[in-house]
Amino acid sequence: MDVKKVIQQMTLEEKAGICSGSDFWHTKAVERLGIPQMMVSDGPHGLRKQDLESDHLGINESIKAVCFPAGCATAASFDRDLLYSMGQALGNECQAEGVAVILGPAVNIKRSPLCGRNFEYYSEDPYLATEIAASHIKGVQSKNVGTSIKHFLANNQEHRRMSSSSEVDERTLRELYLAAFEGAIKEAKPWTVMCAYNRINGVYAAENKTYLTDVLRDEWGYEGMIISDWGAVNNRVADLAAGLDLEMPSSSGLTDKMIVEAVQNGTLDEAVLDKAVENILNVVERFESNRDTEAVFDRDADHALARKVAQECIVLLKNEDVLPLKTEESVAIIGEFAKAPRYQGGGSSHINSHKVESVWEILMECDSCKDKVYFAQGYSTKEDIIDEKKIAQAVELAKQTDKAVLFAGLPDSYESEGFDRSHMKMPEGQNALIEAVAEANPNTIVVLHNGSPVEMPWADKVSGIIEAYLGGQAIGGAVADVLYGKVNPSGHLAESFPIKLEDNPSYLYYHGEGDRVEYREGVFAGYRYYDTKKMEVRFPFGHGLSYTAFVYSNVKLSEDSIRDTDSLEVSVDVTNTGDRAGKEVVQLYVAPPKDGRIIRPVHELKGFEKVFLEPGETKTVTFTLSKRAFAYYETKINDWHVETGKYTIELGQSSRKILAECEVQVESTRRLPLNINLDTLFGDIQKIPGTEKILEPFIKIFTEFDMGGDDKLGSSTKEMMESMLRDLPLRGLVSFVQGKVSYQQLYDLMEQLNYLLFKIG
């Protein structure tokens, strides 16, 4: 299909009609011009395709499919190749089912543990989120199926999500909430971008020209289709003018008429409509011309892949010599989740799984361990009560076995799309159960099934903790593999686990007042806040243990000093010093200059690599850092800027466990604009190269001015005078050195200084 030629043949009504869905999951067809319908489907960790006979609202049962681990889990893998493989499988499934676009990935920043949709989102860190998303997108689109990165922008809560306004300053937007999208969009080029429900600084995402057009298209160069979240359109004509191409789902023709009328009365340029139609039809044509009619949805093969993915995502949080389990040990398996795991969240990403594996099922199939494991229910997910009878049964079993493995976490009613959590606690019945079992058996291990952090008042009383997250339909086998050491755990937390909810930086104002939600914590989200404040956390960002040990050595920089236009190569040798093969996630953080003038986090993740090592093996891991790794967003110039100074490169296993570090001097090649006037501080002028001689006579006048002798104002007179001069506006000289400096002299000084600034650029 020649898209531009087809558009020339379309009527105004047909063009307007193309800009909204025909039902809940399809775009409109124009049969006379050979334009077919296109189907989209919910994702991102499985195919939630509805049968064609299902309802138009999209709430009835979808086809049997494969549920891969959710975003909360896959980000913990820190594994780009793994996400690419998972994306390939999803893309192939879409081809087999005739789905052109799978809706995802979701990259919104985890601002608070309370967000009901955190299980779908990747991380509190934008670099990790955007890198994982890029790999997922590339994998899916390698099969000529589109993705829809979402929800653009600042969609960080479910509470009042269709009316709330995220009030965020530009620097915070750029460094966190836009950055999570930026890298993936620029690098992986998703076919579509989905706008959010909420407003950004008062303007609905669907009609926010600043971000849909000025930033996304003009600045980032995005050329794909922009689609609305389902029901996010508030003013169809304004949305179209702002850059929103496709409205979903169907509006039953109501908004189509609005577009036609707007073009006819001159309030909407038809060229804007034509461009939206072109963006939509480009996606339709791209899929249709690359249909793979031989693709097969092999559910069992993809189930096996889902198990492999889940293995890589599991995080070993704590291990006091209780793991891995040995087949000769007797083990109490406790908790309802051991037989009926919670493996996915609720809402639009809910998959109709073709089969689900539980730990208990897998263990019963294991000849070497099935006669050594015993089960007790411990609690019921149907009611949040402390069931003394069930707890007593679990305690008795724990006393009679070598080790106890307790499966716990959050039930479906605690977290889902559509509502936020009201607290960070687990059900009280589960907490009481864990406390009781841990007292009965010192070798107690807790396996958690949850989509976001939970408070762990019992953490110091158990010997092992495994974070399984919502690990998809094969999570039972993956957990069993980790418990018994068939798989060496290699997941690392993509989010901080605070000790209590009140520690979170957004706690005081997370839901805001009415529809106004202020992001007062600014750039200090997640570990950026906890680490900068040196606040104790339950488990830090990036944390994850292994059944082996790793040592870092021989850190090298390609240069000791660079300009911000240069690239820096960082290498480190990583050695497996244990007796098991395993994978290490090497994390690279950059710390800003200690004497910098900008308020910044103590460090930020700027690189990561996952490397496999046999026992005794050493590999060299290399990172390349560009300007962006050292920069902050400077609103004075509306651009990224590097402050000159000495930066620290930190290499470690978490944001709190840095194993090696070194320093590099980075020189900025761009001077920030400074117009020197009477209010400019002396200290700020002194920082400008070449001002020493110009300022010298004025400094002499100030320091020699008699204010009562060297120590008449105390022993710190000299230090006081130097500090006063640094913080003194130029106009202050007239008052402090009465009669020694005139305003005319200051005007002449300002002229000299501004000319100097002009010459040095």
UniProtKB/TrEMBL annotation:
Residues 584-655 form the Fibronectin type III-like domain. This is Beta-glucosidase. It holds the Pfam family Glyco_hydro_3. The keyword NADP does not apply. Signal peptide: none annotated. The keyword Hydrolase applies. Belongs to the glycosyl hydrolase 3 family. GO terms for molecular function: beta-glucosidase activity. Keywords: Carbohydrate metabolism, Glycosidase, Hydrolase. It comes from the Bacteria. One of its GO terms (biological process) is carbohydrate metabolic process.
